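The instructor's notes for this session suggest beginning with a concrete chain rather than abstract definitions. Hand out the sequence below and ask the class to guess, before any prediction is shown, which regions might be ordered.
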Amino acid sequence: MSLLSETKTWLSTEKPDREEILLTIDNLSHEYGRASPERRAELNKCIALLCGKAGLDRASVNLEGDSPAPTQMELDASPLGECGFR
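After discussion, reveal the predicted structure:
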């Protein structure tokens, strides 16, 4: 099962509150910097979907893992899990 499918299932079955969704966005955004290009594509979709569900316009992701001075990229929210970048 893909990460996006797992995320959609989690949202529909567990009905997480906004705080749980925000924590999940934070966890996924920290994984982003260490992820392969294929995994980043999955993370983009999941973060966009979660942002839309949490009522956020966008989220920042860390492009350099856990480095002391991370480079950030913003992802736009999407209720369908489509990617949008700023």
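Then share the key points. The beta strands are 58-62, 72-76. The chain has one domain: 3-76.
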